[in-house]
Amino acid sequence: MTTPLRKVAVLGAGTMGHGIAQVCAQAGCTVALRDVSEAALDKGLAGITKSLDRLVEKGRLDDAGRTRVLGAITRTTSLEDAVRDADAVIEAIPERMEWKLETFRAVDTHAPAHALLGTNTSSLSVTEIAGAVRDASRVVGLHFFNPVPVMELVEIVRGLRTSDEAVERARALTDLLGKKPIVVKDFPGFATSRLGVAIGAEAIRMLEQGVASAEDIDTAMKLGYRHPMGPLELTDLVGLDVRLAILEHLHRELGEQFRPPALLRQLVRAGKLGRKSGEGFYTYAK
Predict the structure, then answer these.
(1) I need a surface site. Which of 73, 87, 123, 228 has the fewest CB within 10 A?
(2) Is 75 helix (H, G, I), strand (E, B) or coil?
(3) What CA–CA distance (Å, rounded) separates 187 from 255?
(4) Which residues of 131-167 are buried (b: 16+ CB within 10 A; e: fewer)?
């Protein structure tokens, strides 16, 4: 019998990690949220609290529900403590392969043998990440989208050695969280990142060439193609540095069509990373 996915360890309390922790706790899971420092955990828990406060203000959650969700999340800087009795481990650390491999080696040592192991990578090879554990069949990509509490989609990425059981357990988890999954094979950029960065990169090139203003490019996609957010607005939300890293990876793997625009490199070098820095293609109040 497959073990129910009720105890979840989330590794990384950044934007994606704390969002994943929140939706897991809202779904009734017990959550261990781990990061390398108390400061990172403070920031992550503050993000969860702010998100829950907005839900209360909108009438989508009552005070008792808010208290229950926060009470379901335990914070820790110990990876061993976080994963020791987890039914599922979801890694949500920065997109650096060497960091992910190091993390999964540690998870393999301390997590129970039945645990589903998920990586929230948006573009890195799930097959390569799975090579860090002894049983690669239980490793699957679980690509959530920002902001996690709002976005319905989860991309389940099947590595070369991912088992049918792991895919079905991943589906069961996304169902529990009220998300809509798609299943894709482990190929550079998967489906969503490959499509998303292609549109985003072309929008940046258009801005670079003076074809239209940022506002008009975004309006074209919102009104002409019914996108809820324009590609430049979305790049600001995701982070220009994150988009650059994905494009660099896809450029290496797939070729010239994914070469990062010079303007994107310039903005990242200038520290203009989007919403998180207060300026990207647009300026934001801090």
Answers:
(1) 228
(2) strand
(3) 14
(4) bbbeebebbbbbbbbbebbeeeebbbbbbebbbeebb
Domains defined along the chain, listed by start: 7-185 (3.40.50.720), 193-269 (1.10.1040.50)
What gap in Å lies between CA 106 and CA 24, rounded to an integer?
22
Tell me the per-residue pLDDT of 238-282, one tens digit each, with 9 for 90 and over: 899 989 999 998 999 999 999 999 999 999 999 999 999 999 999
User: Nearest CA to 110 among 154, 146, 156, 78?
Assistant: 78
Which residue type is seen at 187?
F
Q: Dump pLDDT digits (tens) for 216-230.
A: 999 999 999 999 999
Question: Is the pLDDT confidence value at 4 over 90?
Answer: no
* Half-sphere exposure of residue 172: CA atoms within 13 angstroms, side-chain side: 15
Q: What is the pLDDT of residue 285?
A: 85
Residue 141 sits at the vertex; the CA angle it makes with 88 and 98, to the nearest 5 degrees, is: 95
Separation of alpha carbons 252 and 123, rounded Å: 12
Angle at the Cα of 194 from the Cα atoms of 190 and 195, rounded to 5 degrees = 120
Whole-number Å distance between alpha carbons of 281 and 168? 40
Residue 117 tokens read as: 């192991």
Q: Mean pLDDT throughout 161-185?
A: 97
Token digits of residue 215: 């506002």
Q: Token pair of 38, please?
A: 């108390």
H helix or E strand, kind and range, residue 65: helix 63-71
Integer Cα distance of 46 and 48 in angstroms: 5
